[in-house]
Amino acid sequence: MGRAARTIRRAVVTGGAGFLGSHLCEHLLAHDVEVVCLDNFLTGSPQNVVHLVEHPGFRLVRCDVTDFVHVPGPVDLVLHFASPASPLDYLRMPIETLKVGSLGTLHTLGLAQEKGARYVLASTSEVYGDPLVHPQHEEYWGNVNPVGPRGVYDEAKRFSEAMTTAYRTAKGTDTGIVRIFNTYGPRMRPDDGRAIPAFVGQALSGRPLTVAGDGSQTRSICYVDDTVRGILAMAFSAEAGPVNIGNPDELSMLRLAEWVVELTGSDSGIEFIDLPVDDPKVRRPDTTRAEQLLGWRPEVPSAEGLRRTVAWFAEQREAAAVRAG
Ligand code: NAD
Fold first, then answer.
1. What is the number of structural domains in the chain?
2. Which of 43, 162, 165, 235 has the fewest Cβ atoms within 10 Å of its own Cβ atom?
């Protein structure tokens, strides 16, 4: 028998001071859901939620979810989003990444189990590795090198999916798994090494855009508002997943770089650099399941999402320049 979706009044968001987490906190509060945001600020910052701290329904708690997770009071939803997410971050912090995917997932599942809460795991398209099936649908098991540099992230997420599934089958916890594809938008760190902030930063400062390999590798980019809407549709449902959340709009890295140059009006050139080890050659979500189960599909065209993102980064740079006098 299927489960019924529940009423959500109070949510715990781990990694809530990060890029996606901060948008989730904001949208939950807008849905009249109280939010307890747990973060150790490893790759996120209190600055991302500073506009929420005065909200009576919001609580920010500094906490490393690999140590211990205790939240007093009722909890209806746990969103486990804590984890370094950009290659630069997880290559710099391999042990922390494996710990938050394993111990962090265990502790947060324990919290959901104790509170009788719905649990949603932030998994990733990286579980598909360098895929041999294109586009990637949820039935595909992936092609991951466990001992390659990216293995620390990919395998942490694969383990966390297995652990989440085990809690569902062995303990009856109401769990859901979302496999998130590359998401972009305001509040990404300019220096996090991901392609869009890197390209935008380079274009705005007139430096050459550094494209890996020959730039023919593809990614599918989803604007943050669409991703957050998909995650919340999953959170407010009783589906187990995994469900892909991403935009099937696939483009080559070279095309993306050229687009950023056009949107910023920059006269930056393109510089080709070495391709990282085990870099996926293609990436595109099959979103049929999300459409069928959640009635979700991305709505923001990449041209519009990129325009908003470029505008945000430009504002941040101007504000920083003013502060620096
Ligand atoms: P982010 O680095 O901006 O946010 C992660 C947050 O987790 C940070 O605020 C960080 O301080 C916190 N954190 C890390 N370890 C912690 C710990 N041990 N205890 C408490 N907090 C901890 O990254 P993001 O892009 O917002 O990604 C959020 C989640 O979504 C991650 O789990 C990531 O794997 C997943 N995801 C993101 C994308 C994307 O395109 N952004 C794609 C796929 C999956």
1. 1
2. 162
Q: How far is CA 115 from each of CA 71, 166, 171, 241, rounded to the nearest angstrom?
A: 9, 17, 13, 21
Residue 143 lies in a domain: yes
Left (φ > 0), alpha (ψ -120 to 50) or beta: where does 324 sit? alpha
Cβ 246 under 6 angstroms from ligand 1: no
| Pocket-testing residue among 61, 81, 161, 163, ligand 1, by greatest number of atoms within 8 A of Cβ | 81
* CA distance linking residue 82 with residue 105, whole number of Å: 9
The CATH number of residue 29's host domain is: 3.40.50.720
272, part of any domain: no
Mean pLDDT score, 230-244: 97
Does 128 reside within a domain?
yes
Q: Which domain holds residue 97?
A: 10-187+222-248+284-299
| pLDDT 10s digits, 99-143 | 999 999 999 999 999 999 999 999 999 999 998 999 999 999 999
Tell me if 175 CB under 6 Å of ligand 1.
Answer: no
Give the catalytic positions in this structure.
153
